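Repro:
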Amino acid sequence: MNQTTWIGEFLSQSVYRMDENTVKIEKCLQELNEEEIWQRPNQSSNSVGNLLLHLCGNITQYIIASLGETEDNRQRDEEFQATGGFSKSVLLEKLVSTVSKANEVIKNASQKNLLQTRSVQGFNFSGIGIVLHVVEHYSYHTGQIAFWIKLLKDKDLGFYDGVDLNKKNEF
């Protein structure tokens, strides 16, 4: 596999995972009413609303601003201090828009941009490291949101309905 092929595959798989998590979060949000969006399991935890604001902030700072080489205007503390002010539909729209913009930056990243090291939040990452961080971070918080919904609603979210997860690997 030449470099161009594996870079394209890496970027394609990264965008796929971003979109996959967005669909999962959308399913989760369908289970919540407006009050539950801002409900916290306890004082040490965040509401789904906080996590959605946080994901938008993180994705914007790492992908859109850093990898996309635009100004970083993130106000991270505000993501966790919010106790309302955004409806479920506005939060979902904000997330979908942020992920869409980030996916465009990812799809259009050059090899040079992916190998360039930059500082984000005081950490030094290559463009590849930035993409890996965002995909991992998005998945991590998607899992937290799903777990909270399952606890709150005592319901399987059906992420893999119609898929045989017991199927063995094929080579």
